[in-house]
Amino acid sequence: MRGTDRPRSSPLVPDAVAAEIARHDWAAGVCGCGRSAGHLADMVWDVAEGHPAAFHALQGHVFTGTRLWPPAPAAGAVLMAVWSAGPPRLATREALLWTLLSLLSAEDDRDAYGAGLYGQVAAHVRGGLPLLVSLLEAGPGSVSGAYAEGILELLVLST
């Protein structure tokens, strides 16, 4: 395991994405796997570097089926930072959009007192709506376009 004396860095990760990862106290929450979510910091670095399999690896940690786990809003913020940093290559883009669609397909856990995990994730995704809409306009009929369309439909339903 990497030492904690130096923050992780990568030439593949833009500064804004690295700052978003660093902004969250990953160890403070419980992961979907039942452990502390501290191990997710390395997982989201792999996501930020654009490894398509890393996006799918979030399943069981950030979301499980239709359930979101406490790290979901932080992971959603990192996903949207990756999305906003520039157009990822095709395989990364499709994995990122699949992950966003999976997060937004979860049950809405809001109550009378707050937005819940779902509302927090949806708020991060709404911040990137212009980029999602432009993707849908540029690539109708593509896998990325289909994911973007699904994300936009779920966001409309959640309002």
Question: What can you see in these coordinates?
Answer:
The chain is mainly alpha-helical. It has helices at residues 15-23, 40-48, 52-57, 72-84, 90-104, 116-126, 129-138, 143-157, and strands at 63-64, 67-68. It has a two-stranded antiparallel ribbon with strand order 1-2. The mean pLDDT is 90.
Number of helices: 8
Largest sheet: 2 strands, antiparallel
Order of helices and strands: HHHEEHHHHH
β-strand percent reads under 5%
What are the low-pLDDT stretches, counting only 5+ consecutive residues below 50? Answer: none
List the helices and strands and how they pair.
Blueprint: H1 15-23, H2 40-48, H3 52-57, E1 63-64, E2 67-68, H4 72-84, H5 90-104, H6 116-126, H7 129-138, H8 143-157
Antiparallel strand pairs: 1-2
